[in-house]
Amino acid sequence: MRGNIIGERFIVLSFGESHGRCVGAVVDGCPAGLALREEDVQRELDLRRPSSPLISTERREEDVVEILSGVFEGYTTGAPICMLTWNRDVKGEDYAEIRYKPRPGHADYYAHVKYEGFNDYRGGGRFSGRITAGFVMAGAVAKKLLRDVLGIRIIGYSLEIGGVRAGEFTLEDAERNRYENDVRAPTPEAAERMRKKILEARERGDSVGGMVECVAVNVPIGLGEPVFDALDADIAKAMMAIPGARGVEFGAGFAAARMTGSQHNDPLIVKGGRIVSEKNDAGGVIGGISTGMPIIVRIAFKPTSSIPLEQKTVDLRDLSEARLRIRGRHDPCIVPRAVAVVEAMMAIVLADHAIRAGFIPPVLRRGD
Amino acid sequence: MRGNIIGERFIVLSFGESHGRCVGAVVDGCPAGLALREEDVQRELDLRRPSSPLISTERREEDVVEILSGVFEGYTTGAPICMLTWNRDVKGEDYAEIRYKPRPGHADYYAHVKYEGFNDYRGGGRFSGRITAGFVMAGAVAKKLLRDVLGIRIIGYSLEIGGVRAGEFTLEDAERNRYENDVRAPTPEAAERMRKKILEARERGDSVGGMVECVAVNVPIGLGEPVFDALDADIAKAMMAIPGARGVEFGAGFAAARMTGSQHNDPLIVKGGRIVSEKNDAGGVIGGISTGMPIIVRIAFKPTSSIPLEQKTVDLRDLSEARLRIRGRHDPCIVPRAVAVVEAMMAIVLADHAIRAGFIPPVLRRGD
Amino acid sequence: MRGNIIGERFIVLSFGESHGRCVGAVVDGCPAGLALREEDVQRELDLRRPSSPLISTERREEDVVEILSGVFEGYTTGAPICMLTWNRDVKGEDYAEIRYKPRPGHADYYAHVKYEGFNDYRGGGRFSGRITAGFVMAGAVAKKLLRDVLGIRIIGYSLEIGGVRAGEFTLEDAERNRYENDVRAPTPEAAERMRKKILEARERGDSVGGMVECVAVNVPIGLGEPVFDALDADIAKAMMAIPGARGVEFGAGFAAARMTGSQHNDPLIVKGGRIVSEKNDAGGVIGGISTGMPIIVRIAFKPTSSIPLEQKTVDLRDLSEARLRIRGRHDPCIVPRAVAVVEAMMAIVLADHAIRAGFIPPVLRRGD
Amino acid sequence: MRGNIIGERFIVLSFGESHGRCVGAVVDGCPAGLALREEDVQRELDLRRPSSPLISTERREEDVVEILSGVFEGYTTGAPICMLTWNRDVKGEDYAEIRYKPRPGHADYYAHVKYEGFNDYRGGGRFSGRITAGFVMAGAVAKKLLRDVLGIRIIGYSLEIGGVRAGEFTLEDAERNRYENDVRAPTPEAAERMRKKILEARERGDSVGGMVECVAVNVPIGLGEPVFDALDADIAKAMMAIPGARGVEFGAGFAAARMTGSQHNDPLIVKGGRIVSEKNDAGGVIGGISTGMPIIVRIAFKPTSSIPLEQKTVDLRDLSEARLRIRGRHDPCIVPRAVAVVEAMMAIVLADHAIRAGFIPPVLRRGD
Predict the structure, then answer these.
(1) A124-to-A111, A114, A121, B313, B320 alpha-carbon distances in Å
(2) Domain residue spans of chain A
(3) Please, which residues have CB within 8 angstroms of residue D169's CB and are 6 or more apart in sequence?
(4) How far apart are the C-alpha atoms of C364 and C76, rounded to whole Å?
(5) At B324, is the secondary structure helix, strand, or coil?
(6) Does the N-terminal or the C-terminal CB of chain C have fewer CB atoms within 10 Å?
(7) Does pLDDT of D286 surpass 60?
(8) Distance CA B97, CA B81 (A)
(9) Å between D326 CA and nearest CA of chain B
């Protein structure tokens, strides 16, 4: 099976199940000498947590990260960093029904076929959004590495929820506001409108989707190893591995398909003695290589599959038609929670490529 | 650097340059016992070739594939299959200017920085669309493997060009028509409208973008190795590695972001004794696993970056502002040519995952 | 850095430090459906433990394994299996001296240079033999997989210790006796003589080396993926990764260098309707492929580097000449303890290659 | 199948068959900016060639290397370097017999089973020593990289042939003499005695084995990524992948198994302001990390399996007992030819690890 490892130099292995003992990740390849404490990881993990009981109903995990290896006297050692959070608030009985009545929009049935019934189906097991807690842990290490060594900042936010798109805003707005509101919107005003959409859906027993935009600034020219390990290709893969992602685009993205070359090409100019592009329709990646301009990616997330509304499914025991009402705690929109995960995946890919392209050395100097 | 290999079990290594001696690929991991002749690869390669001098102006390469290894007495041996086509019609002088005047929208400048000027800049070198001839060779092997063993068919076509979208059509229409017209449209009618858009752009000295849709049918349930090597994640990576790709989406894709859960979820039903979904908004992949429904992916391609219109750039020798008029043979739209490449990448990923998931054995039986 | 992962399909990631919180391993790629309980792993782990206070003086870790993920209702799920044992009996103060006075024969100095002082030096950190507890955990899973699916048995034993070589014995002798005596010898008589050598060395404040032989029986023809992932090449790598290994040989091994072709070639004969070789000087691998004959490998282990005798070294603080007396608990011979580790590494490589060559499916059937 | 790729950053893919169209290799991951011409590779390839018709009878291939990609204006570009030599002197008819009468000591039978008869059996196909021509091409690139950037020299030689071991000699002797005599011995005197052994075997219709020793000097401290990608582990794997290798050892090697700790440990001293070890029983690698001392490895090669003497085998058509007399051109000792291959594999592994550990940058500066 083997598919739980991502990266070439900064490698992340994901482990754990929704209703098993823990959820975690191991990072192999983090340079030695990075100052790292559990608080650095905890902070990121907290950003993924339910921020408001009104729009998020996930079980109240405390999600306390423990670093089990790879850090010594406050610095990474170059050895694998194993991190995990213990699952505390697990109620197995909530999920007994899904063993035989696969939930539409979920992997339940397909995992059942693929693993011939051996998969841990409780709460979706490996397919639960809960698994992304491990992504965020690994991303926290990557983020700190990128920030400390290269000054790279990664800013994700909910660009659109339930069809409501954020109005005009600057990156600074987004950076300042996204974690100040419970929907991770770039402005308070957008937050208000998005929150309303989510609550409406929730009242109907339904759910809504949305879009996360993520921007990485201060990325030097030269990350990405074409032709196949193109930077945008690896980012796309990482984003699509987030549960619920249905599409990904860079810069002008799908709109580029309707532009002409003279509109879309980013003209080169000299600014402050440096060659930059006049605009950034390419979204910071051309030919699979970072251009030095902000990397801009958008990810479409589907509406939460777990909805209280009655749905049609099949009872696996006799292939009879069945009706299903999903109970339990499910966010009516996964987008707010996905923001931290998108940032984590961006950080993981950038850290990997920064090491590959020689921008981050195998050992950081003390004082760096 | 090292980034020219894709796949885990069915592995493709791309080599060659636009204006070097050849363009090719090596496949490592193709099962032994696949009936394979040069004609099988040549046929696919021909589909990538300029179909009409009116809308495609690439140099008239004959692109004759040679299989150098890994095939014996008409069957693959399990050893690496090295394939290439010799570059014949190469004129180095056409490209001297781009050494110092990087073309907007191209990797010229970024590759120059990354490789510190050592890259083969002629015709874009490794960043030329010509490199995809090697993708198509490898894809031809993957396609035949998928078809012979699993009956999988892969159908790509131009869904939209220059803002013109194909009207209603069936998959059968697309399969029958796409290689019968020079823009790879699913219907003759759409072809006519798209062709017009391309010619208009060409007359203006400009270019247009578009969208390729690709469908894979007969894919069994269970391809994909979550959480990271999710099937859609790996397809997304492969597609984004195609020069000019700016976005990728599955099933309802970005539209899913505006749907509700009750709209988007694909209800499960029993049909012909088999569990299927009533519709396929998921595009054939849920939780990173193939669902048995057709896999549907759309890729946005930007307009050709090489346009005859004068563009702004910088002269690298003195950082002075410069004007650039790109001469030479360039398609005013890369979408028609990309169709064969998209199909190839889809085949490569599916073959890799079919082997990983145990659907294709290490050796095919004679007579299979 | 990134070097803590081994395998292609059955993948093992090692984590933990000698004096950190824990030592463990994650297996990614174990097929779903393998019956696995903690006792299965504990049993193997116990075989690695100090068997006799006379010849082994390692700290009395209880080494209780915990399986944190990847197993559900007694069966593997196909998800990563994270296993660890908590370090309990850790005294950091014992090892303060080695920070500045690197121990001859140890990685202390070289790790200090490589990781620029960031490595966890306590007890050797990642370079401690203690790390192999994780190898044994992963090996336990691999062993069970090989035995349950293919009936493969792996038998390691101390062939030679301190120059004392075991006399004549059969594989059955070895299988029966090795874990019945504290030096893992194939016969009680050899055990007696080896034990004496170890005790003599211990009394002198010195240590002795030795040789482990490991045999795998019931391996089918066809494991190994030449040319580079040859079965013997991958076994050699795995064995050389065990701390203290200095050489590895297959079948006749180095003696083959002094044989003639007519002596060394294994003639093919038919026996019981099956083609086998008359003898097995090749040690079960020819051309990198398993031959169906027992795989026979021998690994040379150096004498324990940590000895009580005074040794010459350098004080890193001022590059002055220094004397070092290593205190603390160290086995005067690592060979007995290495036996379980050698078996584990053999199992890990065979499991990986059995999956790669299609002998083990992605999911085991219930009842298998 | 997929097993023809070695390395993580400096990656070598081997392709081609003994009696196919060509034998070659692709290097992915060679830094840009390395001065490289076909002559650099040809020189190494020539060292692998039959040096004397008396002791080597391989077909008289010219083995002219062609570099097909990845080099531009005399420098590597960072793109994959595809190299090959065309097979010219191929006579298929010589090998028809081995299709049904597998040669003892060869992979014939095991490959036949593994690939179910689809393998190219002519001349052993992928299992022929001829494949190593590709190894040497890739090794030539690695060698030049190591020498140009780090000043690393790699010196291999025949240490022992047919039981005749070279007498006392210095590394300088070996470096000066090995390619001056046809058996690659470190001294003319040893060459004379080894040559005699080979000729005696040849006259008897038999063959002899031997041992290659390979030393790498000027390797900095810190290559190797423990625990699994230990430098000695990766070297061991690479060496064991050479056809005919039966064992590998480092420094004192198997003799270390009979030493005491006080004998074997290399005491640390200060010499010329640098910490070095007083002797080098560890062979330049401790704890999987290079120590800065010369890396010393010995590889045992079996006697050539193809001998003119009649041998016992089985006719695959009816499982009857058969006799086989191998005709054709076969060296009575592969050791002299293996020397260049051993050096190549050493170079490939060191280049890979030098890049991994940050000693070689992704792009070399002009003038380096």
Answers:
(1) 9, 14, 5, 52, 59
(2) 5-356
(3) D186, D187, D190
(4) 10
(5) strand
(6) C
(7) yes
(8) 37
(9) 23
> Which tens digits make up the pLDDT trace of A323-350?
999 887 788 999 999 999 999 999 999 9
The shortest CB-CB distance from D358 to any of A8, A357, A362 is to: A362
Where b means 16+ CB within 10 Å and e means fewer, D308-341 reads beebbbbbbeeeeebebebeeebbbbbbbbbbbb
Are B362 and C362 in contact (CB < 8 Å)? no
User: Which of the 8 DSSP states describes residue B61?
Assistant: -
C222 to chain D, any CB pair closer than 8 A? The answer is yes
Query: What pLDDT, on the 0 to 100 scale, is given for residue A7?
Result: 98
Find, among D209, D202, D225, the residue nearest to D354 by Cα.
D225
Question: What percentage of residues in chain C have a pLDDT greater than 70?
Answer: 94
Q: B342-346, C1-5, C34-38, C131-135: which has the minimum mean pLDDT?
A: C1-5
Distances (CA, A) of C254 to C278, C283, D202: 20, 12, 21
Residue of C260, C171, C263, C158 lying closest to C209 (CA atoms)? C158
Residues constituting chain B = 368
Predicted ipTM of the assembly = 0.97
For residue B23, pLDDT over 70 is answered with yes
Residue of B nearest to D23 (CA): B69
Residue C288: pLDDT over 80: yes
* Helix C38-48 and helix C335-356, axial crossing angle in degrees, nearest 10: 140
Please say whether the beta carbons of A286 and B106 come within 8 A: yes
Residue entry with tokens 């690896």: A234
Q: Does C85 touch chain A (CB under 8 A)?
A: no
Q: Which pLDDT score is estimated for B91?
A: 64
| B363 and chain D in contact, CB less than 8 A | yes
pLDDT tens-digit map of B107-165: 999 999 999 999 999 999 999 999 999 999 999 999 999 999 999 999 999 999 999 99
Q: Kindly identify which residue of chain A lies nearest to residue C70, measuring between CA atoms.
A: A16
The model's pTM is 0.97
Q: Percentages helix, strand, coil for chain D, rounded to the nearest 5?
A: 35, 25, 45
The backbone torsions φ and ψ at residue B179, rounded to the nearest 5 degrees and listed phi first, read -95, 5
Over range C331-342, report the average pLDDT: 95
Question: Which CATH number fits the domain B5-356, given the four candidates 3.40.140.10, 3.90.1150.200, 3.30.559.10, 3.60.150.10?
Answer: 3.60.150.10
Q: Look up residue C259 and give its two tokens.
A: 């044989």
